[in-house]
Write a structure and sequence with these properties.
outer membrane lipoprotein receptor (LolB), chain A; disordered N terminus; 15 strands; alpha+beta; 4 helices; 13-stranded antiparallel sheet; globular
Length: 254
């Protein structure tokens, strides 16, 4: 009799535990979304944004291999436009509408379809430059609390919510207190570690924004690529700028 009561109580306990876990899951998911939104704020300051960007590829000895300038218009609803500003790429544009990417070349009346993983320069892909939102593009779980160079941080495991993203999985580390991005391991669809990223902040003690993203290639040349954000300003572009046919037929937007 006592054994039967004990088993019944144990089954009730397990049932209550399962129910508590089910109830906690949505709350935990919501907490992860809030953490990602906090981390995103250090890279974006508005829903529609103009970001002047400089990309520098360094050789293994630290010398500069190549350097390019880009104007990036990050817009709401997964839309972005990249204008290439350096003489070697003058007139080229990249448009992102959701999972669709187009490249516009000077003198061509057609927009060319490309993938978000295609490189603009060095190890900075189109997706690295054109997309800046973890909260919109990924779901995640909290792996735990860890130490990042002696600083307490949170380790998040992120999974892409869409197949068109450059990275299908990200291991992200953010500050425990302020949720600023610290580092990330970026994995492609094949589950290979493609790049390791670290984020440089404007003020170590009380950060307000990411000033630079440093990418280390893990697949081929192992070079270092620095994506520096020179300025950010709120900017909503005309709807016509987000049309690949319009861009192909209008080489100048200035």
């Amino acid at each position: 009799m006592n054994t039967r009561i004990h088993r019944h109580a144990r089954s009730l306990g397990l049932a209550w535990l399962a129910k508590l876990l089910l109830l906690a899951s949505p709350a935990l998911a919501a907490d992860i979304t809030l953490l990602l939104k906090d981390a995103d704020r250090y890279r974006t300051s508005a829903e529609n944004l103009q970001v002047e960007t400089q990309v520098t590829v360094l050789n293994k000895d630290g010398s500069v291999d190549k350097e390019r300038r880009y104007t990036v218009f990050v817009q709401a609803q997964h839309k972005s436009l990249v204008l290439m500003r350096s003489p070697a790429e003058a007139g080229q544009k990249v448009l992102m509408l959701g999972d669709d990417f187009w490249l516009m070349l000077p003198g061509s009346a057609r927009a060319l379809r490309i993938t978000p993983s295609q490189k603009l320069l060095g190890d900075a892909s189109t997706g690295d430059i054109a997309t800046m939102s973890w909260a919109d593009d990924y779901t995640g779980t909290l792996v735990g609390e860890e130490s990042c160079d002696g600083k307490p941080c949170l380790h998040l495991a992120l999974t892409a919510s869409r197949k068109g993203l450059s990275y299908q999985r990200i291991e992200l580390w953010i500050g425990k207190a302020k949720h600023e991005p610290i580092a990330a391991d970026l994995f492609v669809l094949s589950e290979k570690l493609a790049k390791q990223a670290r984020f440089v902040l404007d003020r170590p003690v009380a950060p307000t924004m990411v000033t630079e993203m440093v990418l280390l290639d893990q697949l081929s040349n192992h070079k270092e690529t620095r994506v520096r954000y020179l300025s950010r300003a709120g900017k909503q572009v005309p709807d016509t700028w987000l049309n690949p046919m319009f861009l192909a037929r209008n080489p100048s937007l200035d």
